[in-house]
Amino acid sequence: MEKKVRQLCPISDPDTTYFLQITWCKDLGMGFDLILSDGQSSWIGKVSEENISREAADMEMKQEKYVEELKKALLFDQEFSDTYRFDISKKEINGESIHFSYEKNLKDVTFRLGSLVLHRVTNSPEVIRELITYCLDCVKELHAKNDHLQKENERLLNNLHDMQEQLQKCVEAKEELETDLYKRFVLVLNEKKTKIRSLQKHLKEVQEMVPETVQASQIQKRFITW
């Protein structure tokens, strides 16, 4: 069984705050029960699945779409507060029954989503006590969720701090490795340069010796010929 309690201020009496409890099983489209209270008196009513089907047909709207509109109107009290409105009027002079309606407002066009007659309950204090108990249970549950989220947030922050430290160590190790590799590269490069210069010097000496050797050989041949 699902349950939702919300506040509302009717169009005809915007200075008065009412508390509306919606109770449904599995899906809102299967019907729901309503309890309305002004803090002193309480009224109850029921919307059946047949009522929902009839309202959807009267509005020429698919039932799934109509149920979505009902959810927005009845369950989401803050997100769509400017779009969905409620009104309450006395059905009988003695006030034993009231007429409760809910509608959707789109700019200059307003159309009724549904309405029903709510009947006054004789045990209003007990109904109000149950409403207060439910609200307190919701607050308690929210506090528990908040505590859990705070602990989870602290855990995630600690993990983030540890990961940042590990990342910093990895960055420092990477920089040290790059510096060491650069030094090794420079050392090898200098050794290669030294070896190349040595080879170039040796090559130059060999190249200088070749003409002298050729010239000496030619002189020797001439001497033998003579």
Automatic annotation (TrEMBL):
Matching InterPro entries: DNA_repair_prot_XRCC4, XRCC4-like_C, XRCC4-like_N_sf, XRCC4_CC, XRCC4_N, XRCC4_N_sf
Kinase keyword on record: no
GO biological process, one term: immunoglobulin V(D)J recombination
XRCC4 coiled-coil domain ranges (all copies): 125-199
Keywords associated with the record: Chromosome, Coiled coil, Cytoplasm, DNA damage, DNA recombination, DNA repair, DNA-binding, Isopeptide bond, Nucleus, Phosphoprotein, Ubl conjugation
Any coiled-coil regions, as ranges: 139-209
Classification via Gene3D superfamilies: 1.20.5.370, DNA double-strand break repair and VJ recombination XRCC4, N-terminal
Family statement drawn from the similarity comment of this UniProt entry: Belongs to the XRCC4-XLF family. XRCC4 subfamily.
Function summary: Acts as an activator of the phospholipid scramblase activity of XKR4. This form, which is generated upon caspase-3 (CASP3) cleavage, translocates into the cytoplasm and interacts with XKR4, thereby promoting phosphatidylserine scramblase activity of XKR4 and leading to phosphatidylserine exposure on apoptotic cell surface.
Assembly with partners or alone: Interacts with XKR4; interacts with the processed form of XKR4, which is cleaved by caspase.
GO cellular component: chromosome; cytoplasm; DNA ligase IV complex; DNA-dependent protein kinase-DNA ligase 4 complex
Name under which the protein is recorded: DNA repair protein XRCC4
Listed GO MF terms: DNA binding
Main localization, broad class: nucleus
